[in-house]
Request: fold
Amino acid sequence: MTKNEVIYIAKPTWYTEQTYPGHAKFYEHFVSQLKQYHEVRSLELPDIWVRDFLPVQNVQTGELYQQFFDPRYANYTPKFTDAIREQVRGAFPRVKPCNVRIDGGNIVLSPDKKQAFCLEKQAIFHKSNPAQKGRVEQELKRALGVQEILWLPQQKGDKIGHMDGYIQFLGDFLMEGATNIFDGDIALDTLLDDKSSNLLASFHHFKTVPLLCRIDENNWLSAKGLYVNFLETSQAVFIPQFNLPEDDEIVNIMKKHTRKPLVRVDCEQISQYGGAVHCLTREYDE
Reply:
C-alpha cells in the first residue's frame, strides 16, 4: 500500500522574501513540481528551513512530537525563535512534547526505521554526562518510535551541518564500488563510531562512497553544490540543481540506483542562504 505522504513547506511572506530574496519565485516553481506527486500544505512561518523546526513523526504511531527548538547556528533573536515555536504550535495543535533541545534536521532514520542517526552538531546539542545522554536517547526513542539512537560526529568542514543528507544518501542510493566524483571518497571510519559504521555497512556492504557535494570554502554558509540535500519521498526524488557542470552527472548517478522519477529542482539562488530541497520540506505519513 502506498503511503499517503503529505509535504509541508513554508509559504512566502513579505518577511521571508525580504530575508531570502527569490524565495517566492522558487516556492511557486517547486510547489508545482511537488504537487505532481503529493499533497502539499503551506504554512505561514517566520522562516523557510522547516526541516529544522517542524515536529518529528513517530514511525510506529504516526503521532507528531515537537522537540525544543533553540538553535545556536543561526543569528535568531529570542523573540524570533519564540515566534517560530508559537506558529508551529498553532499549525499542529495536537503535537506532543519531546523534551530535548535538538532540531529535526539532526535526525535521519535508518532504511528499516529501527534506528535513528542523530548528528552531533556542536552548535545545537552537546552530549554531556552519561546520565544526560541516556535521558536524551530515551526521549528520542519515545518520540521517534525507534529501537536505538546512533550518534554521528559533526563532519569536518561542514559548519552548518548537512551530514543528514549524506546519511540519507547512504541509506537510499549507495553504489557499491562507486568511483570518485569530485572531491574524493570519504572513509566512513573517520566519520562514524564503530557501531554506527558497522550498522551502515550491513545495509549495503561498502567501504567508501562519494560525497555528493562541492563546498565553497570562501562561502561556507552557501549550500550551492550540496547535492546530498535532495528530498526522497515515497513517490519521487527531488534533486537540487545549481547550474554547475556536475548537475547532469549527479542525475545520471541517481538514475542508476532508483526506479522512482527524478525531478530536477532549480536551487541555484535559494541555496545561497544555506540549504536546498531537503531543508525546505518536511514530509509526514497520514
Observations:
- The CA atoms of residues 14 and 209 lie 41 Å apart.
